[in-house]
Design brief:
The chain has 7 helices and 7 strands; from the N terminus they run ααβαβαβαβαβαββ. It starts with a helix and ends with a strand. With 197 residues, the protein is of the alpha/beta class. The longest helix is centred in the first third of the chain and has 20 residues, at 3-22. A 7-stranded mixed β-sheet has the order 3-2-1-4-5-7-6, with helices on both faces.
């Protein structure tokens, strides 16, 4: 990772912490992933050759940058979804500063509706870090979008275990899905679709 991107990530970490300490209003908070989660995502993208990455929940683009620098290394691309105009603008500025905007597509809107418009099995890796109350409803579409052998990574598996429990149980109940929870950052729930029918 080049020094300018590393410096930007450090700047965004500090911005996120300062912003979220000062602001109680959830829509204005960044709620960024932890640095070790970013490193984990970067390794996963490259280790699995995930060239088609979908992120649900951009915020100010901190997590997107971790995904994008990894995707760029393997000739991949990241599509990221965000509903907040305020956060979309912050993210666009950060993407421009990072030099990674060419490998990032921003989509504005409600994730559930946008996911419905996407083609089957067009994602190698999906990173889900959004409105947890919607995950149960989104699962059938998320599963449809993941290719066989594709990977779903969901943040906050341990930090918000009560909110995540029903979703994690639903996903794990699928006979063609293998899951695990990894104690990185706020806890990462991983699910992969079997490559065989």
């Amino acid at each position: 990772m080049n020094e300018s991107l590393q410096a930007l990530l450090v700047e965004l970490e500090q911005f996120g912490q300062d912003n979220d300490t000062a602001i109680a209003d959830r829509p204005r908070r960044m709620l960024n992933i932890t640095r070790d989660t970013g490193e984990f995502l970067s390794v996963l993208v490259q280790a699995t050759s995930a060239k088609r990455v979908l992120e649900i929940g951009t915020s100010n683009g901190y997590s997107t940058l971790w995904l994008a620098q990894a995707a760029q290394n393997i000739g991949g691309h990241v599509t990221t979804i965000e509903q907040s105009e305020f956060k979309l603008e912050l993210a666009a500025n950060n993407f421009e500063r990072s030099g990674l905007s060419a490998v990032i597509t921003q989509l504005r809107g409600e994730a559930g509706s946008l996911l419905e418009t996407m083609h089957d099995e067009n994602c190698d890796l999906i990173f889900l870090d959004s409105k947890r109350s919607e995950y149960l409803a989104w699962w059938p579409t998320i599963k449809r979008l993941l290719r066989k052998g594709g990977l779903l990574v969901v943040d906050n598996a341990t930090s918000h275990a009560d909110e995540m429990a029903a979703f994690m149980a639903l996903v794990a109940a699928n006979s063609d899905v293998t899951t695990c929870t990894v104690p990185v950052g706020n806890g990462q729930f991983l699910a992969t679709l079997s490559g065989y029918d």
